[in-house]
Amino acid sequence: MTSQLALTAALFGLCVGSFINVVVWRIPRGESCIWPGSHCPKCGKSLAWHQNIPVLSWCLLKGKCAFCSSSISPIYPAVELLSAGLWVLLALPGVGRMGAPDQLLNFLAGAIFVSWLLPLALIDLKTMQLPESLCKWGLITGLLCSAGLGALQGAGAEMLLYHCLAAVLGLLAFESVSAGAEKIMGVPALGLGDAKLAALLGAWLGLKGLGVAVALAVLLGAMFGVIGRLSGKLSAREPFPFGPFLAVGGFLSWLACDSFWGFVISPPFRIL
């Protein structure tokens, strides 16, 4: 990866991260992500362009609103930096689960994918909910990308079929686990939003990628739960959001592609 490509990816990632902050703030409140423009949530004053530069504006303003001096959370620049870092990782050679098209196409598909996962994970962390609209359109976009990039390799219908199958299996599997747990323990083990996020992952990653993502999510979630309970931070039946673990598993599955995770699933399921 050239330094020019890394810099370009980082700059675009910062800008997208800025918009992700808007999505995370507004969607749970039922507000439009487009209108009105960026403004201070405390005093309502619209921000000038130079007050809305990712990371830099926060530093120049010393973390305070230029109008009312209310504190601006450091989470905002942190999300922008995280988005930039993820975009740079996606620009690495060999990254991507959409078969073997041009590296740029795989990068663009991955950028869309991770830019959908990040707000879902952050919203779930804040609200314990996964917005249906984001899950639905993320699933549709994943299927369209699967079909489009598959078509470039002469396998558009086949790619779309297997990714549709993965999406359906992800949805049904998570709903079944949740329903079974509710019968046994009296409470659902997973929320309906988690099932929809699993379907989104299937649309983007296919059967094998979904399996890897879910396995990683379960492992990370179990580790978090055990540590939380041993440390006293979580009570015996206290719920915690599982969406962020699914998002991390999905991103790692995409990032490493088959070079590292290929041994996890047996050969009959090697079609993406």
Describe the structure.
- This protein is an all-alpha fold.
- The protein has two domains: 92 residues, no CATH class; 172 residues, no CATH class.
- 66% of the residues lie in helices and 0% in strands.
Indicate the topology:
Layout: H1 3-26, H2 56-60, H3 75-90, H4 103-127, H5 132-152, H6 156-185, H7 192-230, H8 243-261
Helix pairs in contact: 1-3, 1-4, 3-4, 4-5, 4-8, 5-6, 5-7, 6-7, 7-8
Return the average pLDDT rounded to an integer.
Answer: 86
Low-confidence stretches: 260-272
Question: What's the alpha carbon Rg, rounded to whole Å?
Answer: 20 Å
Q: In total, how many domains does the architecture comprise?
A: 2
In helices, the fraction of residues equals 55-70%
H/I helix tally: 8
| Helix-strand makeup class | mainly alpha
Strand content: under 5%
* CA distance, first residue to last residue: 25 Å
Number of strands: 0
Largest sheet: none
Described by the principal axes of the CA atoms, the overall outline is globular
The ordered H/E elements are HHHHHHHH
